[in-house]
From TrEMBL:
It holds the Pfam family GatB_Yqey. This is Aspartyl/glutamyl-tRNA(Asn/Gln) amidotransferase subunit B. InterPro entries: Asn/Gln-tRNA_amidoTrfase_suB/E, Asn/Gln-tRNA_Trfase_suB/E_cat, Asn/Gln_amidotransferase, Asn/Gln_tRNA_amidoTrase-B-like, GatB, GatB_C_1, GatB_Yqey_C_2, Gln-tRNA_amidoTrfase_suB_CS. PANTHER family: GLUTAMYL-TRNA GLN AMIDOTRANSFERASE SUBUNIT B MITOCHONDRIAL AND PROKARYOTIC PET112-RELATED, GLUTAMYL-TRNA(GLN) AMIDOTRANSFERASE SUBUNIT B, MITOCHONDRIAL. It comes from the Bacteria. It catalyses: L-glutamyl-tRNA(Gln) + L-glutamine + ATP + H2O = L-glutaminyl-tRNA(Gln) + L-glutamate + ADP + phosphate + H(+); L-aspartyl-tRNA(Asn) + L-glutamine + ATP + H2O = L-asparaginyl-tRNA(Asn) + L-glutamate + ADP + phosphate + 2 H(+). It comes from Desulfurispirillum indicum (strain ATCC BAA-1389 / DSM 22839 / S5). Keywords: ATP-binding, Ligase, Nucleotide-binding, Protein biosynthesis, Transferase. SUPFAM superfamilies: GatB/YqeY motif (SSF89095), Glutamine synthetase/guanido kinase (SSF55931). SMART domains: GatB_Yqey. Belongs to the GatB/GatE family. GatB subfamily. Heterotrimer of A, B and C subunits. Allows the formation of correctly charged Asn-tRNA(Asn) or Gln-tRNA(Gln) through the transamidation of misacylated Asp-tRNA(Asn) or Glu-tRNA(Gln) in organisms which lack either or both of asparaginyl-tRNA or glutaminyl-tRNA synthetases. The reaction takes place in the presence of glutamine and ATP through an activated phospho-Asp-tRNA(Asn) or phospho-Glu-tRNA(Gln). GO terms for biological process: glutaminyl-tRNAGln biosynthesis via transamidation; translation.
Length: 479
């Protein structure tokens, strides 16, 4: 490998607050353009911002959850730039004095490895509005501004340049998303833009300490696109360096249809924004009591839940990692296990069939119409030998069509497993009589035909015969 890739992410998470960061306007999305605005978010002369305490609390909680220093003194600043959807001509953000300082998270890598990714800071800021170009709404040649988003509260989570490839960047982004969901401080809806990220990426010769010139890819809103954009940018920069050129520091946009990044503008430096302290807002002064009170409200976080699942339910570390990466999948699994305590088999069903159906339906598990208790009940019926694993697959498909209690489905469809030895022996004898060739082969030492005979037996019983009994009795009958 000739070059080492160096990646840092800036994640913009919309704080789950009913009102904006500096005024009382609603943050609800999908409303009539410019209907959720007021003199403050429209930047009318004489209007003054008032800080939303919930935004402060949620940012502190996020800092605590990612092992960060909470700064007792922090200050807002004006980030000056002109853009049509920025009504004030500046964005209220934080610069030299952010509310959250250095921290870290651990990410999971293949083959059971972990890696520590440093967090540089988290700061609070307001979102800009939205530009709507006429070509997208059938009015080419015109542009429109919707300021409903202007003033929406954001946390910007800035990582250290500690990631070395697209897989690490995706793992980091997924871990931050998971933590935010567990904290319930952001709904993490990437399609609606409540979780977005900018990717800073550079290449340097392997072994070199000095960082290369970076490009920033703006406003990525899906895990898949983050990975694809990084892969493309790695190839683009490597080609430039191989040809003896120099990478230009710039901001780029990713085009998912063409799978390329395109130049947007030269990359600004901090001094280009003319940062200075926001005169209309007093500094934020935190007390130990304030911070400790919020620390006491932290929920069980993904890493702790993962460890508990391994210990409490006896499932492999991998299973626990998959189940706890999504708060709501973890809740679903735990509700199923409370119905019937067989952690590993229920883990297999949730990770396999449940997540498969959700992927096919493009659903979140919160939209899944099969209650977790039904999965637990179905596994209990397998363990009680009322149904076989194969019959359970049929029961599950029936539940997907109509989410009924599995006990009712089994009774209605006549799917109860046959465990009567006499009935099964009679059925097996018939199968052997109908297949003299394979029977002779088996008795001549060809053990592999046993699989065929078992299959024929299960087929004859329409899957209802107990598989263990079928195997046992077949061997007896075959001598």
């Amino acid at each position: 490998m000739k070059y080492e890739t160096v990646i840092g992410l800036e994640i913009h998470a919309q704080v789950l607050s009913e009102s904006k960061i500096f005024c009382g306007c609603s943050t609800k999305v999908g409303q009539q353009p410019n209907s959720h605005t007021c003199p403050v978010c429209l930047a009318m002369p004489g209007s003054l911002p008032v800080l939303n305490r919930k935004v402060v609390d949620y940012t502190i909680k996020t800092g605590l959850a990612i092992n960060s220093t909470i700064n007792k003194f922090s200050q807002f600043a004006r980030k000056n730039y002109f853009y049509p959807d920025l009504p004030k001509g500046y964005q209220i953000s934080q610069y030299e004095e952010p509310i959250v300082g250095e921290g870290y998270i651990m990410i999971d890598l293949p083959e059971g490895q972990t890696k520590r990714i440093g967090i540089e800071r988290i700061h609070m800021e307001e979102d800009a509005g939205k530009s709507i170009h006429g070509s997208s709404i059938g009015k080419p040649g015109s542009s429109y501004i919707d300021l409903n988003r202007a003033g929406t509260p954001l946390m910007e989570i800035v990582s250290r340049p500690d990631m070395r490839g697209p897989e690490e960047a995706k793992a980091y982004l997924e871990k931050i998303k998971s933590i935010l969901e567990y904290l319930e401080v952001c709904d993490c809806n990437m399609e609606e833009g409540s979780l977005r990220c900018d990717v800073n990426i550079s290449l340097r010769p392997v072994g070199q300490e000095k960082l290369g010139t970076k490009a920033e890819i703006k406003n990525m809103n899906s895990f898949r696109n983050v990975g694809r954009a990084i892969e493309y940018e790695m190839k683009r920069q490597a080609q430039i360096l191989d040809e003896g050129g120099s990478v230009v520091q710039e901001t780029r946009l990713y085009d998912p249809e063409k799978n390329i990044t395109v130049s947007m503008r030269s990359k600004e430096e901090a001094h280009d924004y003319r940062y200075f302290p926001e005169p209309d807002l007093v500094p934020v002064n935190l007390t130990d009591e304030w911070i400790d009170a919020l620390r006491g409200t932290l929920p069980e976080l993904p890493d702790a839940k993962k460890e508990r699942f391994v210990q409490q339910y006896g499932i492999p570390v991998y299973d626990a990692g998959v189940l706890t990466s999504d708060k709501y999948v973890a809740d679903y699994y735990e509700a199923a296990v409370k119905t019937h305590n067989n952690g590993k088999i229920i883990s297999n069903w949730v990770m396999g069939d449940v997540l498969r159906v959700l992927k096919e339906r493009k659903q979140d598990i919160r939209e899944f119409d099969i209650p977790a208790q039904y999965i637990g009940k179905m596994v209990k019926m397998i363990d009680d030998k009322l149904i076989s694993g194969k019959i359970a697959k049929t029961v599950f498909e029936h539940m997907c069509e109509e989410p009924k209690d599995p006990e009712i489905i089994v009774k209605e469809k006549g799917l109860v497993q046959v465990v009567d030895e006499g009935a099964i022996r009679e059925l097996l004898q018939k199968v052997l009589d109908e297949n003299p060739g394979p029977v002779e082969q088996y008795r001549n030492g060809e053990q592999k035909v046993m699989g065929f005979l078992v299959g024929q037996s299960m087929k004859a019983s329409k899957g209802k015969a107990n598989p263990e009994l079928v195997n046992k009795l077949l061997r007896e009958l075959l001598g």
